[in-house]
Request: fold
Amino acid sequence: MTKARDLASAIPAPSTVSSAELGFLDGVTSAIQTQVDAKIAKTLTTTTGDIIYASGANTPARLGIGSSAQVLTVASGIPSWATASSGAMTRISTTTFSSVSAISIDGCFTSTYANYVAYLTFTGDTAQTNINVVMRVGGVSDTAGYSNVSLFASGGTPESAEDTGGTGVVRIGQHLEYTNGTKIEFYAPEIAKSTSLLSYSNSYFSSGGNGIYLVGAVHVDGTQFDGFRLQFDNSQSGTVRVYGLEN
Reply:
């Protein structure tokens, strides 16, 4: 009995926890809980390159990765991806073609830009051809409503022509013997009013020197176009780049 009383007296009485110590423990617990609450679930991201942002106070959200060459911007206070601006001109599309007699560039004209410019280059020194353009909407070529005047010079011999027939296509240049460079300007193609075109084309012919085409054309009705088509007399290869011009 004495041994039991001695053992009991040897056990220290529980110490009293001060209010300061309790406050400290509460603070640690609160901090841990805050960290747990603030942790973003890994399942919020699904794709390599995803970005986490706040869609509202204490509300994480996912922004999926953008397309190649896009840049991060802000729209209506929310981050988003957008096509990088190249200053006054923004590239809309690049289309490479190989051994074709025609190439359609559809969906390149939208309300984002009022005016556009396209650059055509042929690959290598291919067969001679006339270069024609026709406007398109909904994947369908419009072969009515055209009027144009062209100035042409080859080896110092100037010529001119006018076509007010309103049908067919507009000849905007020639590819003679060596690599051609052609520029086409489209004014208000997507707006419901007349669409104007200006084009410049230059090529070289060994037996006649440079061949230069300067063309002004109008599509006289109020069609809203979303694309165009280039047509050649024979198969050609090359690239067409379309740019929107800053309003």
